[in-house]
């Protein structure tokens, strides 16, 4: 069992991984599938679809950017007065924890891409201490971002919500994705204990690669 210590917001917390290996998830109920890495079922198992966005540096970000890597993803917008600042603070904790780890990256999608242009994301990133080598804030086609959020990452559907494509996407969830674009966990990005669990689960995932 892995034990780690996380320092953030003047707190030191200890968290253990819940399991020796992480489950796989394939749909909105987040029912765990306990599979091994060589399980034949994974050949047709749910994967995050290919995507193409632009980050705060004007660089193109695709699924190939994270080929062979683990990444943590969320959805936000720069003018959000509610949950987004706290989510960004907690993503910043993840950035600090994994800054020297070349296998772990962060990916935040703007849900208001019409406003969140590259210059807007760049200014936001600078204000929030985002390191573009570790953490990409991306903009792109609204329909692609919303489709990924709802149909690939299931970031709202775990709450039992069924929304129309034109409805606003707003969620506090962080999603853990492995090197094969399989979903391995979902976490409340507003909750420090949940974020600490995410950190522990990343360690578990790395140990089982």
Automatic annotation (TrEMBL):
Keywords: Copper, Disulfide bond, Metal-binding
CDD domains: SCO
Disulfide bonds: 80-84
Entries under SUPFAM superfamilies matching the protein: Thioredoxin-like (SSF52833)
Pfam families recorded: SCO1-SenC
InterPro entries cross-referenced by the UniProt entry: SCO1/SenC (IPR003782), Thioredoxin-like_sf (IPR036249)
GO-annotated molecular function: metal ion binding
Sites where the protein binds Cu cation: 80, 84, 170
Residue runs in coiled coils: none
Family indicated by similarity: Belongs to the SCO1/2 family.
Name used for this protein in its record: SCO family protein
Organism expressing this protein natively: Portibacter lacus
């Amino acid at each position: 069992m892995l034990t780690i210590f996380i320092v953030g917001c003047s707190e030191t917390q200890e968290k253990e991984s819940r399991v020796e290996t992480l489950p796989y998830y394939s749909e909105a109920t987040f029912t765990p599938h306990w599979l091994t890495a060589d399980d034949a079922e994974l050949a047709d198992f749910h994967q995050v679809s290919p995507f193409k966005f632009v980050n705060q540096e004007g660089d193109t970000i695709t699924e190939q950017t994270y080929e062979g890597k683990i990444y943590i993803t969320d959805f936000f917008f720069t003018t959000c007065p509610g949950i987004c600042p706290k989510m960004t603070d907690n993503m910043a904790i993840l950035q600090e924890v994994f800054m020297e780890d070349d296998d772990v990256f962060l990916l935040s999608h703007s849900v208001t891409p019409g406003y969140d242009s590259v210059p807007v994301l760049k200014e936001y990133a600078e204000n929030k201490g985002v390191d573009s080598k570790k953490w990409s804030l991306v903009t792109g086609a609204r329909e692609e971002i919303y489709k990924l959020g709802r149909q690939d990452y299931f970031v709202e559907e775990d709450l039992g919500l069924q929304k129309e494509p034109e409805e606003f996407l707003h969620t506090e969830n962080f999603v853990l994705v492995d090197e094969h674009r399989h979903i391995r966990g979902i976490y409340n990005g507003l909750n420090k204990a949940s974020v600490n669990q995410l950190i522990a689960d990343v360690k578990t995932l790395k140990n089982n690669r």
